[in-house]
Amino acid sequence: MDYNRLGHSGLRVPALSFGTGTFGGGNDFFKAWGSTDAAGASRLIDVCLDHGVSMFDTADVYSHGLAEQILGAAIKGKRNRVLISTKVTFQMGDGPNDYGSSRQHIIAAVDASLDRLGVDHVDLLQLHGQDYNTPVEETLSTLDQLVRTGKVRYIGGSNFSGWHLMKSLAVSDRYGYARYVAHQAYYSLLNRDYEWELAQLGRAEGVGAVVWSPLGWGKLTGRIRRGQPAKPGTRAHDIAGTGPKFEEAHLYKIVDALDIVAAETGKTIPQVALNWLLRRPTVATLIVGARNEAQLVENIGAVGWQLSPEQIAKLDAASDLPAAYPVWHQRDFPALNEQGTVRG
Questions:
Q1: Domain of residue 323, residue span
Q2: Residues 3, 62, 132, 186: which is the catalytic one?
Q3: Is 62 in the active site?
Q4: pLDDT tier at 164 (50, 70, 90 boundaries)?
């Protein structure tokens, strides 16, 4: 397993992390992801550790805390071998302070997560979404307090806009607070919006990308093709209206290119799609999920080899889309862009 520094921190994380959204299946939404129980989770975690996948990502809202509970039970006796990443922000109760990035909610949510996980600290805490209602200073001072007390080792955001992430970094620098070193963001061959602004910010400010859904919400498995829609029982079918938006023609064009590269490399389509992401600037780790051991082992096969420059260029061309303003305007003036590009 390859290991990368997480942003400008000293923490080294595996190139692949394991996502626990498949643990529990506590409601219809998460059942579409998976319903792995404690015994199944323990086996998957052992497989991960055998292959060097030592970071496990979860969130309090995953099956309303059940995923954290299952993860906590599965890592008992293994805490010194694992890194735990969790997320807080979204609604966890009916009260007016049961969501958001306020001091009140963050502290309560972290304590509850630690209790469910059965640990005294998490290695990476990320705010699951951008909260427009809480002053950034309040949020960052609270996170800094959690780092200083040892309940949290490192902090990050997730699903932030570039301006909000940059404002947060500026506040940390101004007051000497702990700094975001990670941004858990969506990024895949199917949707490359991350490159337009967030990648530039991450490279300039030392924020590593922790990539969620690197296979495009289950669309880049190779099982969805022209005339071959998603099958019942899969996330791409059962909750098809959720997740990133895309045009079918765009997906098929990417899958065609993945087919060619997979044949050239002797790898599977998911392995090729993941390997492409591992080559992108600022990417520290990809969060991969699996309902079973076979899926997990296949995903782990994305590391330990590299696509050729020609194969990367082929996938770049197939997945490229017109950029939003002001990126398309910036691309018209390459001399002003770092290394002649604004793609990241």
A1: 3-340
A2: 62
A3: yes
A4: very high
